[in-house]
Design goal:
The protein has helices at about 15-30, 40-45, 70-75, 80-90, 105-115, 150-170, 190-200, 210-215, 225-250, 255-265, 265-275, 275-280, 300-315, 320-330, 335, 350; strands spanning about 1-5, 30-35, 55-60, 95-100, 125-130, 135-140, 175-180, 205-210, 220-225, 280-285, 290-295. By secondary structure, the chain is of the alpha/beta class. The chain has 2 domains: about 1-120 and about 285-315, Isopropylmalate Dehydrogenase; about 120-280, Isopropylmalate Dehydrogenase, CATH 3.40.718. Strands 3-2-1-4-11-10-5-6-9-7-8 form an 11-stranded mixed β-sheet, sandwiched between helices. The two termini are about 15 Å apart.
């Protein structure tokens, strides 16, 4: 697998990107293409010994998209940006996936332009894995689309189900719609309209789920709009950080507390591994014709390595092709597909970038 990595994206670029690429190349053997300022990248690579033996190459890009730039500005003015070039490498078949820890809005806009949307899908969705009692819950959208229609949310549900099946190996994924209660009378106008549409879909739809159900494993896929999903994601990150800090504070208050921490160190390490975003690495952008991974802006080398590893796995499993094939086989296209694209995907394999 060849992974194009935006080496200039993120708060810790290019150091975190280069270090993460080295870790990934050593562990997985995937070829990592570092895209960005050639001189800065080589300066960081020169700190490593025997680097020439690793499957790493550099592709120069003269521009950088900052975290503050608007997606529209980045599209118009940064045509040779590191994230745009990384995505173009996927489109041109030079890479199997693109990974970036840069401006997520700009990356999503550039992915839609470069890779294009899957036919019948109106908006892509950012999907993330959140820890639960049963392993992980896929939540989408978590920031790609602040305002959504019921049709958008139904498309997210279909894409999320395919992702759960192909990427996580869940045979019959349970799909839930995030709301403020389990009763059908709850929710907003948007959730009620979506609920009625999902009830008629050939999905394993379990109805409304609440925020706590994301973590207790009631559903494998939880669908929501990007605004609510992002609030849920950031709130859960804050709670996890708070609990971790409180535990450390309490353990340090007494000798017995420090002994208790020492004895339970392994348990807390295991919990940290299950809840640390760095172990997951990134969130796939579902709905585009290719594998595109969005990482946390503050990603370190470990998070970048995990994202590269996940991107290679998704590309190897031909996620976008399987999504097209399964969506094509869905008999409910008239309910969820973009109106102008009904009856699409006659030959899905011919339309996949990685064919």
């Amino acid at each position: 697998m060849r992974i194009a990595l935006d080496a200039m994206g993120g708060d810790n670029a290019p150091d975190a990107a280069v270090d993460g690429a080295v870790l990934a190349a050593r562990k997985t053997g995937s070829h990592v293409i570092l895209v960005g300022d050639r001189d800065l990248i080589y300066e960081r690579l020169d700190r490593y010994r025997r680097i020439r033996r690793l499957p790493i190459s550099v592709h120069h890009a003269s521009q950088i998209v900052t975290m503050e730039e608007s997606p529209a500005s980045a599209l118009r003015q940064k045509r040779d940006s590191s994230m745009r070039v990384a995505l173009d490498l996927v489109r041109e078949g030079e890479a199997n996936a693109a990974v970036s820890a840069g401006n997520s809005g700009a990356f999503m806009a550039k992915a839609m332009l470069s890779l294009r949307l899957l036919e019948g899908v109106e908006r892509p969705a950012i999907a993330t894995l959140m820890p639960s009692k049963r392993g992980f819950t896929i939540v989408l959208d978590v920031g790609g689309n602040v305002e959504c229609t019921a049709r958008n949310l139904v498309q997210f549900a279909v894409m999320g189900e395919v992702f759960a099946h192909d990427a996580l190996g869940i045979k019959f994924p349970r799909v839930g719609l995030l709301s403020n209660g389990g009763e059908s009378s709850k929710g907003t106008e948007l959730t009620r309209a979506t609920h009625e549409m999902l009830r008629e879909m050939r999905l394993r739809y379990i109805g409304y789920v609440e925020g706590r159900d994301v973590f207790n494993g009631e559903a494998d896929v939880v669908v929501t709009d990007g605004f609510t999903g992002n609030v849920l994601l950031k709130a859960s990150e804050g709670v996890a950080s708070l609990i971790s800090g409180m535990l450390k504070e309490e353990y340090q208050k007494s000798f017995l507390g420090r002994v208790g921490y020492f004895l339970s160190k392994g348990v807390y390490a295991a919990i940290r591994k299950r809840t640390d975003y760095r172990e997951i690495g990134g969130a796939p952008l579902l709905g585009v014709n290719g594998v595109a991974m969005i990482c946390h802006g503050s990603s370190d080398a470990q998070a970048i390595k995990s994202a590269i590893t996940a991107a290679a796995r998704y590309a190897e499993r031909r996620l976008e092709l399987h999504m097209m094939e399964k969506l094509n086989a869905c008999a409910d296209q008239e309910k969820w597909a973009s109106t102008k694209e009904r009856g699409f995907w006659k030959n899905p394999s011919e339309k996949s970038i990685n064919s």
